[in-house]
Known about the structure:
By secondary structure, this protein is of the alpha+beta class. It has helices spanning about 15-20, 55-65, 65-70, 110-120, 170-175, 230-240, 245-255, 300-315, 325-355, 360-375, 375-385, 390-399, and strands at about 5-10, 30-35, 50-55, 75, 80-85, 90-95, 105-110, 125-130, 135-140, 145-150, 155-165, 180-195, 205-210, 210-220, 225-230, 270-275, 280, 285, 295. Helices cover about 35% and strands about 30% of the residues. The longest helix has 29 residues, at about 325-355.
Amino acid sequence: xxxxxxVLVIGGGLVGASFACAMAGSGRRIGLVExxxxxxxxxxxxxxxxxxxxxGSRILFERWGLWPAIAGTAAPIRHLHVSQRGRxxxxxxxxxxxxxxxxxxxxxxHVLAGALYxxxxxxxxxxxxxxxxxxxxxxxxxxxxxxxxxxDRSRQITTCLVVGADGAGSAVRAALGIGAEIRxxxxxxxxxxxxxxxxxxxxAYERFTPAGPIAILPRSATxxxxxxxxxxxxxxxxxxxxxxxxLAALQTAFGQRLGRFDGLGPRGxxxxxxxxxxxxxxxxxxxxxxxxHHLHPAAAQGFNLALRDVTVLAGLLQxxxxxxxxxxxxxxxxxxxxxxxxxxxxxxxxxxxxxxRLPGLGLARGLGxxxxxxxxGIKHDMARRSMGLAFxxxxxxxx
Length: 399
């Protein structure tokens, strides 16, 4: 006999779990399917991934009652310094110019996962189905029949709405036949932590090099999180080489602004590609997070964009008679299309412009960075959008 849910979320990572938390108190029955629950404690000798939360995302976590569980380990970003290697031109962004405590925060992923799943454990109406894997679905006029595998047995579930939150290689997207535009950047992001010679303070650095951007984010009083984008072959080499060689290469690429780098943490790398679904909805189904729009990590916009997607969706579902109604899904798509389009093109444009070695572009990039300093109106608009300030204001007003 099939289990019945109002909404079934395939993918219980940070995006899927955030949506389930946003639905708390809705009176809906929510199923959250995950193959392997995310770690909620640090894993020794493994790369510790972090997420950069925009100020607007903090507002959302506060609204859902999650921020107190996150705040103690959230490293504030109060200043942003953007530059390019070997060229003039610098752009600086300061939190005080926008009347906020911080531009954003750097939070370990295990802390986010812990806060989300602790909240879900206290919420009525949400069932976490794990470990389980999505197998197939069949859409009917009023419900979707979903088959999961739980070990060596199958489980049948029916639901009014399927939400695919299962990542860039989404099995839900494939099952629904939703088309995606995919661009392989031929790059990997090397992720680790490093101890700089000078205290990192509360400044984040984005330094563009011909190979790809280097992001250095405050993490603690003594170390920073590093996301170093490199061509695939070079990234794999950097992960294999000894600590001394890695630190020397990083020093050359980043410069001396933070003194001499030392104290390297475990390293890992993941491939970078852009996945965009022009129409991320189907009959009684939609895609959120990387399943619908997987972005380059430059400017750290992917998860923050996904939070805005699930917030709008949760708001529409609160009072909907039928969660899978075609008009409701179309309303969500239209409401989110401009933001998704703008952010995906912004991050893609940054990568293509600053990783291009064509003669003369270095000068143009330097002029562009300098121009942002001389045209504060444009810089402020970009910063406000990156922080999600307009969206956060709307959410606060509606709350």
